[in-house]
């Protein structure tokens, strides 16, 4: 396993991190979830990403139990705040009240005194940005959070936050967590250039495009049983790819490229995102330990310019590049 700085910070993270969106607390049993976490540790992964909203807070609980007994200083635990975790009007968003209450809930569920990175899971249009950033800064001062970041913010939103932090003396954002893959490249036009300039690293999710880039979804055929496409909690994200039969056919054309490199399709997909110098870590998910062991082999892989061009020739116009597609909702849920 190789390691990278998280943005311009001094924090080192494994360039492949383990995330438990969908899987822990919902898609797989806890024993299987723990087996995946320990497979990740065995393979050198030290960075673990979750969120309070995953599986209705259960994912944090499962991760906390899975990491129990592991030397705390040896791992980096990331979580997020924004989406509803209760029925009340203040059980959501990025208000000071919700942030302060949410971090305490996350720490309790994760069985830790602090998280290495606390991320705003989306941009909150109904809370002053200064309020959010001051609350984050207070948590850093209290030692409950070491670094702060965001997830799926636009370039303008990230720029606003950095300007306010500089003006008010708050801790700056060190990371953004966007969707990024061969098929979903919306961050390349605006987010990446800004973040490279400002020292903000990308922790990318879905580098395998919810499994599409493994090649297991075949054109004209139903999804495999128990796949991501059949899980209601994740099928909405994958449907945009599965509806395009020509895209699925093009993905099959990546197989010879992967084979020539001695890589699986998943390894090629993960290695591809890691070629971007602004990417600090690529998040993988898994329902079985062998998936973890397969994906981590992408660490340290260097793809030549010729290989990168060959991939672009295959994917071509099917890669989504419109920055307006950033996953940021118009208002708080």
UniProtKB/TrEMBL annotation:
Gene3D superfamilies, alphabetized: NADP-dependent oxidoreductase domain
Pfam family, one: Aldo_ket_red
UniProt record, GO biological process: monoatomic ion transmembrane transport
Positions of region (Disordered): 216-235
Key word Ion transport present: yes
Record's keyword annotation contains Ion transport: yes
GO cellular component: cytosol
Domain (NADP-dependent oxidoreductase) ranges: 15-314
Signal peptide range: none
Record key words, sorted: Ion channel, Ion transport, NADP, Oxidoreductase, Transport
GO MF terms, alphabetically ordered: oxidoreductase activity
UniProt record similarity statement: Belongs to the shaker potassium channel beta subunit family.
Protein name: Voltage-dependent potassium channel beta subunit, animal
């Amino acid at each position: 396993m190789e390691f990278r700085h998280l943005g311009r910070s001094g924090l080192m993270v494994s360039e492949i991190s383990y995330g438990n969106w969908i899987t822990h607390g919902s898609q797989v049993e806890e024993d299987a979830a723990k087996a995946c976490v320990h497979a990740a540790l065995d393979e050198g992964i030290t960075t673990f990403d979750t969120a309070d909203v995953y599986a209705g807070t259960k994912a944090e609980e499962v991760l906390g139990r899975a990491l129990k007994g592991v030397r705390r200083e040896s791992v980096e635990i990331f979580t997020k705040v924004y989406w509803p975790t209760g029925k009340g009007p203040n059980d959501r968003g990025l208000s000071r009240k919700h942030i302060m209450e949410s971090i305490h809930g996350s720490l309790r569920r994760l069985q830790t005194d602090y998280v290495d990175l606390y991320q705003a899971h989306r941009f909150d249009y109904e809370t002053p940005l200064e309020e959010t950033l001051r609350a984050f800064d207070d948590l850093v001062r209290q030692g409950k959070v070491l670094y702060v970041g965001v997830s799926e913010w636009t370039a303008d939103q990230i720029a606003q936050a950095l300007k306010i932090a500089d003006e008010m003396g708050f801790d700056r954002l060190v990371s953004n967590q966007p969707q990024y893959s061969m098929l979903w490249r919306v961050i390349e036009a605006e987010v990446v250039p800004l973040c490279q300039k400002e020292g903000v690293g990308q922790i990318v999710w879905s580098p395998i495009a919810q499994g599409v880039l493994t090649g297991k979804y075949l054109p004209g055929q139903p999804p495999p049983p128990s796949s991501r496409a059949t899980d209601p909690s994740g099928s909405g994200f994958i449907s945009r790819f599965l509806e395009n039969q020509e895209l699925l056919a093009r993905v099959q054309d990546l197989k010879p490229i992967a084979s020539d490199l001695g890589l699986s399709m998943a390894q090629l997909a993960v290695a591809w995102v890691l070629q971007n110098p602004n990417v600090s870590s690529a998040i993988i998910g898994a329902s079985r330990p062998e998936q973890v062991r397969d994906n981590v082999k992408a660490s340290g892989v260097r793809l030549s310019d010729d290989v990168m061009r060959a991939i672009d020739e295959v994917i071509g116009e099917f890669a989504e590049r419109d920055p307006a597609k950033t996953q940021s909702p118009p208002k708080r849920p």
